[in-house]
Recover the amino acids of this structure.
């Protein structure tokens, strides 16, 4: 049975059948494991397998990657990469090392699109090797597709968590994550009306007169430029009220300070 990429289980998670399995081979640092756990949670990866980890301390992992106890409890420990990918219909291995043998190599975005297609046929694994030496050639032979992340050739090495994060992000987007709506503002506001903007311009005209801004400039030219700036900003009603209040307060402050305001235009009448 296959599932669409948007399928979720009763707890609201993406079904394990619709997310890849993250496989870390012989990880040597609990911090890297914890970082990979957090990344898996960030990008909807529901399963992780560790191949012969040098250290595995669930309590420490959760202490580093907070609120992941349920995920950590589901981590599977396997003795070999062959055992970890035995049930997978496809495997994508992260490596930046050049190999003498000709291998099918993709960039993360292209690989992610292919990975999502393969999920329709069964479990798919994303494999990452040891922090210091990556994977052996024999281990690479178990993986169908090599994924190489483009980096500056002068400094090509990525750490384990960085590589997993890039592939996790691309896979999440290929599974529809990029289509999730951005969080809207707490309160929507209608665009500023012409009346609101004219009041804003009038009060800022007064404010600029009050600080003697026009002493060497033509006020009409300055205000015309100011109008264009405001128009390009496409203010909503709340923003227009805020900007207008700033101009009003300039004049009020000068009045409280006793500054001479001769020649300042009168305040606009409220409608």
């Amino acid at each position: 049975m296959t599932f669409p990429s948007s399928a979720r289980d009763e707890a609201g998670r993406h079904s394990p059948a619709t997310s890849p399995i993250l496989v870390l081979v012989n990880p040597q640092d609990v911090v890297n494991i914890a970082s990979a756990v957090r990344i898996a949670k960030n990008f909807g990866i529901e399963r992780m397998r560790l191949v012969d980890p040098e250290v595995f301390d669930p309590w420490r992992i959760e202490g580093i990657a907070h609120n992941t106890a349920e995920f950590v409890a589901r981590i599977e420990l396997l003795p070999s990469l062959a055992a970890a990918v035995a049930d997978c219909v496809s495997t994508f291995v992260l490596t930046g090392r050049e190999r003498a043998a000709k291998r099918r190599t993709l960039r993360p975005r292209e690989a992610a699109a292919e990975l999502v297609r393969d999920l329709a046929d069964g479990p798919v694994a994303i494999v990452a090797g040891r922090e210091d030496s990556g994977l052996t050639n024999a281990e690479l032979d178990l993986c169908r597709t090599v994924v190489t992340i483009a980096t500056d050739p002068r400094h090509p090495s990525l750490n384990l968590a960085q590589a997993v994060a890039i592939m996790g992000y691309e896979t999440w987007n290929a599974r529809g994550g990029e289509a999730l709506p951005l969080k809207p503002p707490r309160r929507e506001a209608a665009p500023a009306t012409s009346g609101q903007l004219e009041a804003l311009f009038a009060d800022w005209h007064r404010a600029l007169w009050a600080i003697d801004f026009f002493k060497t400039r033509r006020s009409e030219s300055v205000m015309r430029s100011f109008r264009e700036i405001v128009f390009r900003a496409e203010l909503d009603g709340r923003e227009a009220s805020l900007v207008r209040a700033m101009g009003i307060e300039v004049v009020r402050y000068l009045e409280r300070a006793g500054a001479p305001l001769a020649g300042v235009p009168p305040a606009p009448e409220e409608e």
Q: What stands out?
A: The longest helix spans residues 237-257. Residues 1-13 have pLDDT under 50 and may be disordered. DSSP finds ten helices and seven strands in the chain.
